[in-house]
Amino acid sequence: MQPVIKISPGASKWDIRQKVWDYIEENNLANFPRPVHNRIPNFKGAFTACARVSELQEFTQTPEVKVDPDKPLEGARLAVLQARKSLLVPTPRLRTGLFNKITPPQGASKEQLRICSSSQGVKDFSVPVGLDAKVKVDLVVVGSVAVSGKGLRIGKGEGFADMEYGMMASMQAVNESTVVVTVVHDCQVVDIPEELIENHDLTVDYILTPTRVIKTNCQLPKPQGIIWTKLDTEKLQKIPILKKLRALEEQAGKDVTLGAVPAAAKPGVQTSQPKSQTRRRPRQNMQQDAEGESTQDSKQEKRAEGEQKARLRTARVRKESRGDGREVNEGEIDEKRKGKSGGNMQEKGPEERESEVMSKRKLPLSVTTVYLGGIPAGLRVSELKTALREREAAPLRLTWQGAQHRAFLDYSDPQAAEQALEALQGLNLNGYSLQAELAKSQRGGKRSGQSNRRQRPSASASPVIKGDTAEKTDQ
């Protein structure tokens, strides 16, 4: 079968990712969450493709399987649990460790196993597995943005699947006989130039799609451990378990020399990685997929529709705010359209509209502010807000200063801000690592945990886009 997506000569990894993401969106091949840009795409037919893992001889022979936490791999996690095998799932972004072992309730029903295979189930039914654990993984299932019939793989650009495999190799949890499987839509199988693949990149042995099983017979070796020169001190700070592994390998006499920290890109200067273009989502069929994907996702689909409308509203807000730099409230725009009880608030005077909106929810008198720097040129507010929601770090209010490549996030108290800071470590958007830390106003002589009262921006300040839990208010 010839690839449906043609890759131009000289294309970079980011060119290929962009082409695949665009194709999936333009052809309405994705399920929730949307858009698929900067994600491992959750494609239609993912459950059908995942079910094929049980057809592999290697699957029947292994007692322990590692499956990545991506949404399109939910069916693979379910297949492992249904086969009563041991399921290991990496912790999101390796923030709290390498991986967790999923432990369903004793005598769990099929529905309970389905819950355990979901992202929430991974959180609720897991036990941490340390670096010193004696585990042997014979089968690894990873997500991909693109993969070639020869087994060359491209992820979403953050390198976590490669690092996870390298760490497992270091702890001797995998070896040359370990089989690596990826699950993708047929359109994600493309021709990837071999020169794009580096020695730290993970290759795959099998590709599962909704229509076929491809054995790649890949000849390139898989990572034999962490290549420390590919990492820097900044990466170690973001992923504490790497620091622990490095200390262990240093004790064992291995060379753990780090690479240099890359020079920070100057504001407004483009790097080799192009910014992602989030495409407008095509209309989606809310009925059950004919491919057998019962998608317990009707609620999620509706939520996705709501998020799409919110993204479009945000785009309008930004457009309206460019002319005079005035303060804009996303919630207020929404209320004007819908009204508090379905009425049209545009018929009311401005003072009445404002008082009605402000009476619903107000910011606390004192907030704790987090500074978010390194925001790439071209990033949209809606994309940042989506990333914050995904990491459960949505603020009460977001003050957007995109021209200065930064934003300020207001949280209700110091504890909420600290939790958000932890969740935002390693945040990467459009190929750029963002920097999250307490705002300067929270530091400089203030005691830890002391909150700060933000002043209301002047009329010439940058637009303010609020989180989902608060509306505009005088502070």
Q: What do these coordinates show?
A:
The protein is an alpha+beta fold. It has helices at residues 13-26, 46-51, 57-61, 74-82, 110-117, 119-124, 160-170, 233-238, 240-251, 298-321, 330-338, 350-358, 381-390, 414-424, and strands at 64-67, 86-90, 99-102, 126-129, 139-142, 146-147, 153-154, 179-183, 206-208, 213-215, 368-373, 397-401, 406-411, 428-429, 432-433, 435-438, 464-466. It has an eight-stranded mixed beta sheet with strand order 4-3-2-1-5-8-9-10. The longest helix is centred in the middle third of the chain and has 24 residues, at 298-321.
What is the number of beta strands?
17
The amount of beta strand, in percent, is: 5-15%
Rounded to an integer in angstroms, the radius of gyration calculated over CA atoms is 23 Å
Count of DSSP helices? 14
Q: What's the arrangement of strands in the largest beta sheet?
A: 4-3-2-1-5-8-9-10
Terminal-residue CA separation: 62 Å
Reported for the largest beta sheet, the result is: 8 strands, mixed
Give the low-confidence spans: 265-272, 274-299, 314-361, 445-475
Structural class by sheet pairing and helices: alpha+beta
Average residue-wise pLDDT: 75
